[in-house]
């Protein structure tokens, strides 16, 4: 059996806020906000200007519990407590470098019973002990270290009678440490049991003043200082102080999500509609506490998972199912200061291939309930289009500011035009103007503002292939024309001086409007640029007939030759870029590559090939380079068939694709209302837009306002169909309704909607084509009261006609239609109740009219409930609720009894959450324990062995995966195009997007060596004793070391290391460092 190897990486990190707290991690007067997004911990410092991100760390397992405690006295700093999903306890502090350092770590796993029904919960008592509920009927007591050098005692367990524990809380009642256990005694009935914790005897005993309360408690809130508590249900808030009578107040019937103390007199509650409610405490004349309830009529926000008061009426509003916000509240309302976009949970996604950019975009159903959002995800830099117009034949764009006005010079192959911009509120217009002496019949190869004369007068200049035209920049009056007998090949403006190249010469227009030679060589010049090396000006030159590039000092004429390694490929353009690390020479080659050299190395090595240079495979045609400054940072824009931004920061070279078709020319353009605005010319259009932020993932969002669960794309209409649900408020009751929505995903607009029957839930949808007519099949289920599983459902076929949805076929079935996929382009494989059913769809003539019919071809039973169905060829992959995956074969020539045959399955019991084909013999699945499992068929052995699927690869990803689909949002990779076509993307509960692909064994052998060395040297709050411990597969029954899958998050960190560290890792791995970098960069480019 041949081993198969895989590479897994993060395409986009988690965005849902799962935990958050405010702590004093450094000085007593410095506050920090700690945010946990599943596996990612972010630490923000609270400043007068907002939140400053100072630290980020990713854990291998999801963080299940977060808390804090004071390390020593009252004024000491806080320590942070993390408990991960594999029950690793980590205690950390913020050091002087503003990084989290490890104080204490221990594995507290027992595996004594079933894991806690509602997940891990815990509480800190007296800054000395941590109580954790990890397993049903058990409380683990963990002594906490008070100083870094003092190790605590060993943890121990105490038994409790309660199960289904919702939360643990610490109270100070009658000067005793009391533990309140909030637990569920039957469905939706939650109560509180109080225990007294004796530190000396290390025991839990029932509190002798146990308060009998049979009413359900939805929310239990310890009061500040733990002296008293609130107990809240849907309509009553009660306050139980330590030493006085109970106070209560009625409120609206609401479902509360979380709470936040604004101060000792005000408690803010938030509900599942994103609304806020205020409870105030006031002392009356009898020294009794009275409660008052105020529903705050602020705007509805997202459903919160955590709300924290920061300072000065500013709150952090964190959400798992929608965007998170930084808000400020006052008497007038709620002001959103900052928004943190959230993709989670990702419920469905599909890859849409964009022919213009030659890559896939992801169309996703995101968020929950009324927060439902449709998101279009694309890789690379997005240009937000302000306006565009069809304009063909553009070769160059130039910008000039003259007389407090902005001008745009557009050059064509056979002429040039000048446009004056008129900027008004929400309006931008360009008017073509005529300038006397401006050559409108020739192509302009350079234009802009220069300084001439002793007074350094500002002049506007136009350069064509044979002449230079000079104008007064204020009045636009013609001053002078300089004509040449020699052809002008290139021209540029540097330091407000005009330079031109003619054959083998570079000349400058001096202050007296005379042409002066700067350089003359032996070969014709193909490209040149001018920059600074320290305080001295240098020229970078490429040649047509020579494979050399020269760096020339303009003062002394010193040369340095760099020999091009690929023979006669010429340099089409060249740029010199300066940053804090030094100077770099960037060359755009005629074959679509970009070469990046560090200037210091060029100056040190004369006439030799520098060893440390970078070759970037950008496009398939010649590269034109353009330097842009965006948000204060310099970038190189590579203009070609695949436009790309190149950044050089801290010695690292990064590329970001631009979401635009082939860019011919680009120029910055000042606009009053937009920073980083640009004018972009493509082959077909001229676009005016702006770049807000340079990021690897670009997102467009459409708020649907309802829960969206499934999506399918119409390839003929550029439209998509959504399955959605919402809660409607009727006079007598709240009703959940489901509907099918038609949207234009290019415009991100809803065009039509069709509501389903009462109690009918839409579960699955698939596109089919019959006689070149596109249709959509929808599977539903009727959720009737008192039914454990739906006993009936429908199959609907709809068609788009004149922008509307029309039902053309419906069929009743016995059970829920959980999933469906097309099979062999004429069949549908469906999971209905506990069966796998194959239908043939066809168009027939009935009474002289065309009708669509579904005819059952065969069926067979699945193990429990087939929740997911995928097809490839005649194979059908089924993901079962509890019985892992099974593979079926369909024989379209067989009869109804034997056309479906189960050919193999996994015998291990696991809760499957998503599935996908790698190929016909290899299958990808994920389970509810955040593991990814890959299976392949056994081609050898007896019949029983061939029937059993082989688990050939597995790894823990720390994310519960909801959906998988084939595709890649990166541009097509020329070297690894075959590998890239097999890439699989998956989306998770917390907004995580990952990618996985099969890789050759020789690449795996290199990367696994690098990964192991990086893991062995990993120290801090995340460390690895042995590589086998990294991301072990975990569930309730077993632990398995990850196998045959490279963790991209680890090996990709190699590129962020210092040069010395890279050399060390390469030496220990026994692999050349350049080979390592090249392989990792190629792996990254498959997905980004």
TrEMBL record:
Domain named RSE1/DDB1/CPSF1 first beta-propeller: residues: 16-340
Gene Ontology biological process terms in this record: DNA repair; proteasome-mediated ubiquitin-dependent protein catabolic process
Localisation: Nucleus
Ranges for domain RSE1/DDB1/CPSF1 second beta-propeller: 387-691
UniProtKB keywords: Nucleus
GO MF term set: nucleic acid binding
Boundaries of every RSE1/DDB1/CPSF1 C-terminal domain copy: 738-1055
Organism domain of life: Eukaryota
InterPro entries noted in UniProt: Beta-prop_RSE1/DDB1/CPSF1_1st, Beta-prop_RSE1/DDB1/CPSF1_2nd, RSE1/DDB1/CFT1, RSE1/DDB1/CPSF1_C, WD40/YVTN_repeat-like_dom_sf, WD40_repeat_dom_sf
GO cellular component assignments: nucleus; site of double-strand break
Matching SUPFAM superfamilies: WD40 repeat-like
Keyword Acyltransferase among UniProt keywords: no
Primary localisation category: nucleus
Pfam family, one: Beta-prop_RSE1_2nd
UniProt cross-references to PANTHER family, sorted A to Z: DNA REPAIR/RNA PROCESSING CPSF FAMILY (PTHR10644)
Name the record gives this protein: Damaged DNA binding protein, putative
């Amino acid at each position: 059996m041949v081993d198969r190897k895989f590479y897994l990486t993060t395409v986009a990190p988690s965005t849902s806020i799962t935990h958050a707290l405010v702590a004093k991690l450094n000085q007593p007067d410095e506050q920090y906000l700690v945010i946990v997004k599943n596996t990612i911990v972010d630490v923000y410092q609270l400043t007068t200007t907002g939140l400053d991100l100072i630290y980020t760390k990713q854990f291998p397992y999801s963080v299940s519990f977060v808390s804090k405690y004071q390390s020593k006295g009252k004024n000491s700093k806080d320590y942070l407590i993390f408990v991960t999903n594999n029950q690793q306890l980590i205690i950390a502090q913020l050091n002087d470098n503003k990084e989290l350092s490890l104080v204490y770590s221990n594995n507290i796993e027992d595996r004594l019973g079933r894991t806690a029904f509602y997940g891990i919960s815990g509480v800190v008592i007296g800054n000395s002990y941590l109580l954790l509920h990890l397993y049903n009927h058990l409380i683990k007591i963990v002594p906490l270290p008070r100083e870094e050098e003092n190790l605590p005692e060993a943890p121990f367990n105490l038994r409790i009678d309660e199960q289904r524990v919702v939360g643990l809380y610490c109270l100070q009642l009658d000067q005793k440490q009391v533990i309140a256990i909030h637990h569920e005694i039957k469905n939706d009935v939650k109560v509180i049991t109080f225990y007294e914790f004796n530190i000396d005897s290390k025991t839990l005993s029932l509190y002798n003043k146990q308060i009998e309360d049979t009413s359900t408690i939805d929310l239990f809130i310890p009061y500040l200082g733990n002296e008293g508590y609130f107990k809240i249900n849907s309509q009553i808030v009660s306050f139980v102080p330590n030493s006085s009578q109970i106070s209560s107040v009625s409120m609206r019937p609401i479902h509360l999500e979380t709470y936040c103390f604004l101060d000792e007199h005000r408690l803010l509650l938030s509900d599942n509609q994103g609304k806020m409610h205020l409870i105030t405490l006031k002392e009356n004349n009898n020294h009794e506490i009275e409660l008052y309830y105020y529903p705050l009529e602020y705007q509805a926000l997202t459903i919160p998972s955590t709300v924290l008061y920061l300072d000065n009426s500013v709150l952090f509003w964190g959400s798992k199912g929608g965007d998170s916000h930084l808000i400020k509240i006052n008497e007038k309302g709620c002001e959103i200061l900052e928004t943190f976009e959230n993709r989670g949970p990702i419920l469905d996604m599909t890859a849409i291939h964009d022919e213009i950019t030659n890559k896939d975009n992801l169309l996703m159903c995101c968020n929950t309930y009324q927060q439902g959002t449709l998101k279009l995800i694309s890789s690379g830099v997005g240009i937000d289009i302000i306006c565009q117009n069809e304009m063909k034949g553009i070769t160059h764009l130039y910008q000039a500011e003259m007389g407090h006005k902005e001008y745009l010079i557009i050059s064509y192959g056979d002429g040039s035009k000048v446009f004056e911009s008129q900027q008004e509120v929400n309006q931008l217009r360009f008017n073509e103007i005529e300038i006397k002496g401006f050559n409108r019949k020739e192509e302009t190869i350079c234009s802009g503002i220069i300084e001439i004369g002793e007074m350094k007068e500002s002049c506007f200049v136009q350069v064509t292939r044979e002449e230079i035209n000079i104008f007064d920049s204020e009045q636009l009056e013609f001053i002078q024309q300089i004509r040449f007998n020699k052809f002008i090949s290139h021209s540029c403006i540097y330091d407000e001086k005009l330079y031109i190249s003619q054959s083998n010469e570079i000349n400058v227009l001096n202050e007296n409007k005379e042409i002066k030679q700067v350089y003359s060589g032996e070969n014709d010049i193909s490209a040149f640029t001018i920059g600074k090396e320290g305080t001295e000006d240098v020229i970078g030159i490429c040649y047509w007939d020579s494979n050399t590039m020269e760096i020339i000092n303009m003062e002394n004429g010193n040369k340095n030759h760099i020999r091009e390694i690929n023979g006669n490929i010429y340099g089409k353009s060249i740029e010199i870029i300066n940053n804090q690390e030094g100077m770099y020479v960037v060359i755009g080659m005629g074959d679509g590559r970009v070469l990046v050299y560090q200037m210091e190395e060029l100056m040190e090595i004369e006439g030799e090939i520098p060893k440390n240079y970078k070759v970037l495979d950008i496009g398939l045609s010649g590269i034109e380079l353009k330097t842009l400054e965006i948000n204060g940072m310099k970038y190189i824009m590579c203009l070609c068939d695949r436009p790309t931004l190149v950044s050089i920061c801290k010695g690292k070279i990064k590329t970001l694709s631009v979401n635009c078709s082939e860019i011919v020319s680009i120029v910055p353009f000042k606009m009053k209302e937009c920073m980083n605005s640009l004018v972009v010319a493509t082959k077909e259009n001229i676009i005016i837009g702006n770049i807000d932020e340079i990021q690897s993932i670009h997102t467009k969002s459409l708020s649907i306002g309802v829960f969206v669960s499934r999506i399918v794309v119409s390839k003929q209409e550029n439209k998509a169909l959504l399955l959605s649900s919402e809660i409607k408020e009727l006079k007598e009751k709240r009703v959940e309704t489901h509907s099918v929505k038609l949207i234009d995903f290019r415009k991100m607009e809803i065009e039509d909607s069709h509501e389903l029957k009462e109690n009918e839930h839409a579960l699955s949808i698939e596109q089919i084509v019959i006689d070149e007519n596109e249709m959509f099949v929808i599977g539903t289920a009727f959720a009737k009261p008192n039914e454990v599983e739906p006993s009936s459902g429908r199959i609907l076929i709809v068609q788009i006609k004149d922008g509307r949805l029309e039902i053309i076929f419906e069929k009743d079935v016995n059970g829920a239609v959980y999933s469906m996929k097309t099979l062999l382009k004429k069949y549908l494989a469906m999971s209905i109740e506990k069966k796998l059913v194959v239908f043939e769809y066809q168009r027939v003539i009935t009474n002289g009219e065309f009708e669509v019919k579904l005819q059952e071809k065969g069926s067979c039973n699945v193990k429990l409930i087939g929740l997911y169905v995928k097809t490839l060829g005649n194979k059908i992959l089924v993901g079962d609720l509890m019985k892992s995956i099974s593979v079926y074969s369909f024989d379209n020539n067989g009869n109804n009894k034997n056309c479906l045959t189960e050919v193999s399955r996994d015998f291990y019991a696991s809760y499957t959450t998503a599935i996908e084909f790698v190929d016909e013999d290899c299958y990808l699945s994920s389970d509810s324990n955040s593991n990814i499992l890959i299976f392949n068929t056994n081609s050898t052995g007896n019949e029983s062995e061939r029937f059993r699927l082989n688990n050939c690869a597995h790894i823990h990803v720390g994310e519960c995966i909801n959906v998988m689909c084939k595709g890649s949002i990166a541009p097509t990779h020329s070297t690894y195009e075959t590998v890239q076509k097999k890439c699989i993307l998956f989306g998770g509960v917390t907004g995580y997007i990952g990618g996985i692909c099969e890789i050759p064994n020789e690449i795996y052998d290199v990367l696994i060596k690098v990964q192991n060395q990086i893991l062995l040297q990993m120290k801090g709050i995340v460390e690895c004793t042995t590589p086998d411990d990294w991301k072990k597969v975990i569930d309730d029954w077993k632990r398995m070391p990850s196998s045959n899958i490279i963790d991209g998050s680890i090996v990709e960190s190699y590129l962020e290391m210092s040069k010395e560290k890279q050399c060390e890792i390469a030496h220990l791995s026994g692999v050349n460092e350049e080979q390592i970098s090249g392989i990792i960069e190629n792996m990254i480019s498959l997905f980004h």
